[in-house]
């Protein structure tokens, strides 16, 4: 699993970005990858990465 910090998450639109701790790249996260979890800016999270239509997506997101 990867780890990172939530940079931005828009609850009304259902998406945001996580900054990966290792690569410092922004990873897209969609509400469907949260499994009912609520995340906010600056939350520490762990997640898996999958290839999406437009790049890397975070899935199986969990708060640390």
Automatic annotation (TrEMBL):
It holds the Pfam family CSD. SMART domains: CSP. One of its GO terms (molecular function) is nucleic acid binding. Keywords: Cytoplasm. Residues 1-63 form the CSD domain. It is found in: Cytoplasm. The keyword NAD does not apply. Gene3D superfamilies: 6.20.370.130, Nucleic acid-binding proteins (2.40.50.140). One of its GO terms (cellular component) is cytosol. This is Cold shock protein (Beta-ribbon, CspA family). The lineage of its organism: Bacteria, Pseudomonadati, Bacteroidota, Cytophagia, Cytophagales.
């Amino acid at each position: 699993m990867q780890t990172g910090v939530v940079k931005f998450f828009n609850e009304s639109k259902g998406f945001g970005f996580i900054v990966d701790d290792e690569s410092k790249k922004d990873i897209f996260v969609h509400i469907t990858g949260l499994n009912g979890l609520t995340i906010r800016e600056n939350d520490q999270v762990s997640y898996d990465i999958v290839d999406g239509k437009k790049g890397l997506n975070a899935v199986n997101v969990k708060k640390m």
